[in-house]
Amino acid sequence: MCLGIPAEIIDIREENGVKIAKVKMGGVTKDVLIALEDVKPGDYVIVHAGVAIEKINEQEMKELDQLLKEAGII
Amino acid sequence: MYIVSIEEKIKNLYEKNPQANIIVDKIHRYAEKLSGKGYNNIKIMNFCGTHEWTITHYGLRSLMPDNVELIAGPGCPVCITPGYYVDLLIKLSMENYTVLSYGDSYKLPGTKLRGVRSLFDAKIRGWDTRIVYSFLDAIKTAHKNPDRKHVFFAVGFETTMPTTALPLYQGIVPKNLLILSAYRLTPPIMKYLLDEKPEARLDGIIAPGHVSAVIGSNAWSFLPRDYSIPTVVAGFEPIDVLLAILYILKMIYEQKPMLVNEYTRVVKPEGNTIAKKIMYSVYSVVDSYWRGIGVVKSSGAIHSEKYREYDLFHNLGFEDKPVDDKLPGCKCPEVTLGLAKPTDCPLFMKRCTPNNPYGPCMVSVEGTCRIWAENLPVKL
């Protein structure tokens, strides 16, 4: 149930006052709800059971060397 | 069923992740140093079913030193959803309700041993039970059939709670759609496991990544603080899990239990504050029953006063009560708490298979038994 899937936001529209995002995950596009502020087309999010629950922070995509260095392992 | 050998899985892991061998090498070095200090059986529990899938699918256990054991934990919400809820939904389907469920809980058995055991069985008998991808799809279905009564089976941990909380909060749920909240909260079960089952004897915990995306990594700070257990919030790639294991071994070696967030690309210390605010205005925390385990303090969620008209129990006058749902011979509760392995169960891959699951741990793709059944190189 906690299987979150990374997806790219293609488009955001409003239906009856509710924000709905069209996202692309793998080869599939899907309408999902957004539990986030400040997301825009082009952003990557984690989608779980039809809701974008968190944004993927590309700046935090660290290289392995950096992670190990921060942890004091190398 | 096609099952690849461990050798092929490891080859696959290294080809996809060329740095994996650096980490595995370091894991072995720490394990050796720890062995010299008398650590002969280091137990690391992964909370999340998706972590267990990564570990099993990529054969990570076979890469571990002899003194490091990876144990699956309670991270499968379908596995601990009370059987009584399934019985109730089957009954409602027979009273002409349309029952909408995630695919993962569709074959979940109720308390009965034969006859109509699951929503899937009810469908075969002609009752209207359906799989939906999301609660949004359930809303669309209910809108299209305004004269019919619908119920939605809301199974899940904190990750899933926003899926119903958000539409309820936004006021877009039609009145002909009731919700059975089977939501359960994860930190309380971890606390329960450590307090009530000391025999689990855990040395490290890999905390769930996507639950933490919602509740925040700080939700796990009690583990190193109160129980001195090194804890790492980790992502779901094999590299993430290997790194988590390495961090845990390092913390054990240095005797500095801490909370490390390895999954910073998604998880923030405070989590998703907007989702949390909405979740806890729509739901109130209560003591709740976990299948085969018992009542766990402050571990469940019911609709709060304002949203109670959508609550199935409140609306139809049913009581949300613990009902004995342990299936004879099934070791799912022990497997869920990390006290047994699927292969310790005499029913595993005999009476209980992915195609014809007997116990709940064989139903969900996050159930440890299902993961082992589909990924282990066993002869079938």
Protein described:
Chain A is mostly beta strands. Chain A has one helix at 64-70, and strands spanning 5-15, 18-25, 28-34, 44-48, 51-55. Chain B is of the alpha/beta class and 380 residues long. Chain B has helices at 6-16, 20-36, 49-57, 77-80, 83-94, 119-124, 135-144, 161-170, 186-196, 209-215, 222-227, 238-254, 273-282, 312-316, 332-336, 368-375, and strands at 42-48, 68-75, 98-101, 129-131, 150-154, 177-181, 204-207, 231-233, 259-261, 283-290, 294-303. In chain B, strand 10 (283-290) and strand 11 (294-303) form a beta hairpin. The longest helix of chain B is centred in the N-terminal third of the chain and has 17 residues, at 20-36. The N and C termini of chain B lie close together (8 Å). The model of chain B has no long low-confidence stretch (mean pLDDT 94). The chains are: A mainly beta (74), B alpha/beta (380). Chains A and B meet through strand 3, strand 5 and helix 1 of A and helix 2, helix 7, helix 8, helix 10 and helix 12 of B.
Based on CA atoms alone, the radius of gyration of chain A comes out at 15 Å
Radius of gyration of chain B: 21 Å
Separate helix tally of chain B: 16
At CATH level 3, the topology of the largest domain in chain B is Rossmann fold
Task: Summarize the helices and strands and which ones pair or pack.
The complex is a heterodimer of chains A (74) and B (380).
Chain A: E1 5-15, E2 18-25, E3 28-34, E4 44-48, E5 51-55, H1 64-70
Parallel strand pairs in A: 3-5
Antiparallel strand pairs in A: 1-2, 1-4, 2-3, 4-5
Chain B: H1 6-16, H2 20-36, E1 42-48, H3 49-57, E2 68-75, H4 77-80, H5 83-94, E3 98-101, H6 119-124, E4 129-131, H7 135-144, E5 150-154, H8 161-170, E6 177-181, H9 186-196, E7 204-207, H10 209-215, H11 222-227, E8 231-233, H12 238-254, E9 259-261, H13 273-282, E10 283-290, E11 294-303, H14 312-316, H15 332-336, H16 368-375
Parallel strand pairs in B: 1-2, 1-7, 3-4, 3-5, 5-6, 7-8, 8-9
Antiparallel strand pairs in B: 10-11
Helix pairs in contact in B: 2-12, 3-16, 8-13
